[in-house]
């Protein structure tokens, strides 16, 4: 049974940092393409970053140079390190594999 559990969200001032975690079960993160997405109020869910089975990582232009996606195979966990946060980064952040989604974790950036 595939399960994704996000954590690490919170309230932070602009310019601050947060580290999100996505603990996976039911499959091995190293064997699948996975991604982080976010959805701001009143907006569609958008891609933040993805990592392929081979470890190739891609970022949305809006987060390049500020966010960093990583994977810990031993812990079967995906991470999203977010630096230089902006108010426009405020959203619920979701972890994804195949058609499965976690419950999301709220990130709020105050100006």
Question: What does it look like?
Answer:
It is a single chain. The chain is mainly beta. It is 0% helix and 53% strand. Strand 4 (34-39) and strand 5 (46-51) form a beta hairpin. The N and C termini lie far apart (40 Å).
Short key terms for the protein model shown above:
single chain; 111 residues; mainly beta; seven-stranded mixed sheet; globular
Write the layout of secondary structure elements.
Layout: E1 3-7, E2 10-13, E3 18-25, E4 34-39, E5 46-51, E6 57-59, E7 67-72, E8 77-82, E9 91-97, E10 100-101, E11 105-110
Parallel strand pairs: 2-11
Antiparallel strand pairs: 1-3, 3-8, 4-5, 4-9, 5-6, 7-8, 9-10, 9-11
Class by SSE composition? mainly beta
**Level of helix content?**
under 10%
Task: Report the end-to-end length measured between terminal Cα atoms.
Answer: 40 Å
Q: How would you characterize the largest beta sheet?
A: 7 strands, mixed
Regarding quaternary structure, how should these chains be classified?
single chain
> DSSP helix count?
0
Tell me what portion of residues adopts beta-strand conformation. over 45%
Number of strands: 11
- From N to C, what is the helix and strand string? EEEEEEEEEEE
Low-confidence stretches: none
Radius of gyration: 13 Å
Shape: globular
- Whole-number mean pLDDT: 97
Summarize the structure.
Strand 4 and strand 5 (46-51) form a beta hairpin.
């Amino acid at each position: 049974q595939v399960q994704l559990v996000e954590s690490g969200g919170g309230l932070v001032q602009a310019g601050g940092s947060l580290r999100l975690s996505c603990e996976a079960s039911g499959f091995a993160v190293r064997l699948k393409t996975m991604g982080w997405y976010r959805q701001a109020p009143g907006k569609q869910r958008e891609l933040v970053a993805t990592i392929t089975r081979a470890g190739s990582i891609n970022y949305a232009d809006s987060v390049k140079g500020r966010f960093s996606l990583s994977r810990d195979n031993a812990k079967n966990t995906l991470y999203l390190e977010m630096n230089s946060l902006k108010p426009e980064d405020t959203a619920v952040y979701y972890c994804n594999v195949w058609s499965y989604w976690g419950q999301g974790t709220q990130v709020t950036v105050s100006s």
